[in-house]
Amino acid sequence: MRLRWSCRRELDWLTLVVIDLGVNSETLRTGLNRAKIDRGLGLVGVLTTAEREEFIRLRRRDVELEQERSIVVRAAVIFAKETTR
After folding, report:
1. Which of 24, 35, 45, 60 has its CA 20 to 30 A from that of 66?
2. Single pTM value for the model
3. pLDDT digits (tens, 9 = 90+) for 3-26
4. 36: number of CA atoms within 13 Å, CB side?
5. Burial 24-35, CB ≥16 within 10 A → b, else e
6. Which CA distances in Å does 66 have to 21, 58, 63, 83?
7. Quick one: pLDDT at residue 7?
8. How far apart are alpha carbons 17 and 19 in whole angstroms?
9. Residue 48 to residue 41: CA distance in whole angstroms
10. Could you tell me which residues come within 8 angstroms of residue 34 by beta carbon, excluding any fewer than 6 positions away?
11. How far apart are CA 73 and CA 80, in angstroms?
12. How much helix, strand and coil, in percent to the nearest 5, is found in the chain?
């Protein structure tokens, strides 16, 4: 019974904040969960905001490097054909 009361009080608190801020309850819940994760209180394996941003940056850099490598390989093929003539 105590757990039910605790959940009810928390729900009321969240409802008041949602109404006061004028935001969607899911938006607030997502923000609160993200804040917990960023403080290191999330589940194991869940990336913090900084880690996610770094991961995205590295993925973009990887795509860039793959494109550059592809250009270099094509240029090497063309250069090799020119030098064997």
Report:
1. 45
2. 0.62
3. 444 555 656 777 888 888 888 888
4. 11
5. eeeeeeeeeeee
6. 45, 12, 5, 26
7. 54
8. 5
9. 10
10. 49
11. 10
12. 80, 0, 20
